[in-house]
Amino acid sequence: MSEVLERVVRPAAEAELASIVKEAVTSKSSFQIRGGDTRPIGNPLAAAQVLETGGLTGITLYDPGALTLVARAGTPLSDIEAALDAEGQMLPFEPMDHRALLGTTGTPTIGGVVATNASGPRRLKAGSCRDSLIGVRFVTGEGEVVKNGGRVMKNVTGYDLVKLMAGSYGTLGVMTEVSFKVLPKPQATAVLLFEGLDTAEATACLADAMRSPFDVSGAAHIPVGVDGAPVTMIRIEGLEQSVSYRADALAKELRAHGTAEIETDPVRTEAGWRYVRDAEAFSGKPGDVWRVSVKPSDGQRVIAAAGAEDAFLDWQGGLVWLRMAEGVPLRDRIADIPGHATLIRGAGQRAFQPEPMALSRLAQGLRAKFDPHSLFNPGRMI
Amino acid sequence: MQMPDPNQMILDRKAHIVARLQDVLPDDAVIHSDNEVRAYECDALTAYKCPPLAAVLPANTAEVAAVLRICHEERVPVVPRGSGTSLAGGALPTADAIILGVSKLADVLETDYDNRFIRVQTGRTNLSVTGAVEHEGFFYAPDPSSQLACAIAGNVAMNSGGAHCLKYGVTTNNLLGVTMVTMEGEVVEIGGAHLDASGYDLLGLICGSEGQLGVVTEATLRILAKPEGARPILMAFDSNEVAGACVSDIIRAGVLPVAIEFMDRPCIEACEAFAKAGYPDCEALLIVEVEGSEAEITEQLEAIKAIAVTHNPVEMRESKSAAESAAIWLGRKSAFGAMGQINDYMCLDGTIPVSELPLVLRRISELSDEFGLKVANVFHAGDGNMHPLILFDANKPGDLETCEAFGAEILKLCVEVGGCLTGEHGVGIEKRDLMHVQFDHADLEMQLRVKDVFDPGWLLNPAKVFPLDVTEGRRQ
């Protein structure tokens, strides 16, 4: 990003994109792929030119009665959310907005959401972006247009390259179109709030909530809340009466962990979960930011071992957000805890967890088939 | 459906290959006599049969690895097999192939209720996974109709679904990790008890790869807390179109039932004759099931009934008791058995956009007249996964071929309206030669290259999924 002279190409259609890539095969000219440029996550990369997907926009199909939406990859996420909102529907996986945390200012695109598999608190119940993604079109590193999956939510025809593309950080192809299974937006939300639990107590409380039949859609613990005290948050969503019944029943079931305050004000509940989703606690604060994926009960172990400046738990403890002093080798400190750590903000360490040899060989093999000339985001991921 | 000719050089070396397998497995785990290998000559697509060269039944991951190393060295094709319930011929062998059955790998390795997962060996049956956790109030969500018999290995291979995936997703959405053995005999661990695996989503790629990328011996599965209760409502309509529109409206209204099942008149009549469930006399029937507490169930059913009323149902029957719920499900659950009583049948599995339902049902009925074979429709309407059952007579010369041709036309229609060839059964050999209908050359080539990475010698289940002419050069 520090380059002064940046060569930017911005195709307006898939066919144009494909021919640009074909030319690049001959000229051996690599690309940094850019959607809205709001999620520059991954290892630093050196590419000859920038390939912007912002010219590939538009919702190509939205069938609310079939819970499906198809859009070109450069479509602003806000356009998609507005269209869904008008029909009382949503993307189930609650994608994170990285802008405040990473200090970026662009417009997030749906392709960027998919490339980073961006998923928020509801991931616990509804799965991550890859679980809602049902179809994809992309241009390979040889300029071929490939489609996989489609617009129906049950589809086992051939290999599932759809999931492979999610979270591949633009290293397997340039996505041109993505299809989703969407869900009805909940009519009501209630959040159970526990104050003052330590991380071990909170972990037990969240596990008990998830063991209940009350269909929890968010389970987070913030050891140092906005007013300094620990806050544990458990979210229930759905039809009005059902939410109120489940919130009360769950509060009763969790009595042993303390008395829950039940928050139902939509503005306050939304703000609370946005705080978790976007790691707002870390915005504007210095240091490296890590995202660690572990078995939920191990979240507390990660916090104990990491020695972070600040930390909190989402996904019942299965997602640990850490703000560390710059350059601290986090992976060494938590090496005995199964899972993996991604450096979301910071430099000097590998962004993605190094993989065992066998997996790394398979990943390299796939990369060599999808992008044989290493034209796309060279160095970003593998 | 054609299968490639067996490689004579492998057939000639049978004694040597069997001896090598016997070196690494107990004697009773290597099945090689002409009589005994017949037990593995087909799966649930019984129209196609071929005894394998031999069958092996390893008891752990190390034995699976040893078998695969030998087969890799000897260049012998391997067909992995779970319980052999594939309707698509996924476990059909060739005469020069070794069947690798995982039925002895049936243990539960770990259960963790706080973290809501179970780790099992993949020969374990689907239903017995739920059986291992239900005393703690948990269940494993994907529920294919064959769940009593089908193995997790096959579920992972085919990315199996079931009636309840509108709410809970299919296998790939409930799979956290696998232990997989590659064709070279290398053991790899992908994912685990954490929610997201690192790196490329290899887990997503392996799930649904029909045993062509590796042999999955262990799986970490998401288990869920059981809802407090569930209740179905049965709704009868006087046309398929109206029932289809009702499905769309229910989904659009923001209610998300766990299941929406659809049956048309031929299917209703057959089920009625077979199971006597007391279904109303109507053109189309929906069974909608909702879950939750008593209050939630009532709230959801009220919303659903309010929508249904606008479509002038012939009858609505809300279950008032466990017995009534069972009666409502009885007909649906015996649909396949009922059809089997009348005739031989072929069960298709295409998915369509829900909005295309009326058109597709009309076209199927026209095609039925054209081909002169009856068809009954029963399917998961919420997600558009159709199961047309084409009735034919296996003893009548030419009937199977007519039935297959008719089936192919229906599947082409599914693709034409924006859907796909298979929603949950897999391609196997059954839909293999139709892949061109859904995919262009480049689409298929990319998938073949994925197999090149995992199995460069094309030894794992090689004659499946892709048209034979497309894979010919690679299989040699």
Automatic annotation (TrEMBL), chain A:
Q: Where is the FAD-binding PCMH-type domain?
A: 1-185
**Keywords for the protein's UniProt record, in alphabetical order:** FAD, Flavoprotein, Oxidoreductase
Q: What class of enzyme is it?
A: oxidoreductase
Which Gene Ontology MF annotations are present? Answer: FAD binding; oxidoreductase activity
Pfam families per record: FAD_binding_4 (PF01565)
So which domain of life are we looking at?
Bacteria
The reply to whether Oxidoreductase figures as a keyword in the UniProt entry is: yes
User: Which EC numbers does the record give?
Assistant: 1.-.-.-
- Listed Gene3D superfamilies: 3.30.465.10
Per its record, how is this protein called by name? Putative FAD-linked oxidoreductase
Name the source organism: Pontivivens insulae
TrEMBL record, chain B:
Q: Give the source's domain of life in one word.
A: Bacteria
Keyword field contains Flavoprotein: yes
The UniProt keyword set, sorted, is: FAD, Flavoprotein, Oxidoreductase
Gene3D superfamilies cross-referenced by the UniProt entry: 3.30.465.10, 3.30.70.2740, Vanillyl-alcohol Oxidase, Chain A, domain 4
Native source organism of the sequence: Pontivivens insulae
Note the PROSITE patterns from the entry: FAD_PCMH (PS51387)
- Every copy of the FAD-binding PCMH-type domain together lies at 48-226
UniProt EC number: 1.-.-.-
Upper lineage ranks? Answer: Bacteria, Pseudomonadati, Pseudomonadota, Alphaproteobacteria, Rhodobacterales
Cofactor or coenzyme needed: FAD
Q: What is this protein called?
A: Putative FAD-linked oxidoreductase
Q: List, alphabetically, the InterPro entries matched.
A: FAD-bd_oxidored_4_C, FAD-bd_PCMH, FAD-bd_PCMH-like_sf, FAD-bd_PCMH_sub2, FAD-linked_Oxase-like_C, FAD-linked_OxidoTrans_Type4, Oxid_FAD_bind_N, Vanillyl_alc_oxidase_C-sub2
GO molecular function annotation = FAD binding; oxidoreductase activity
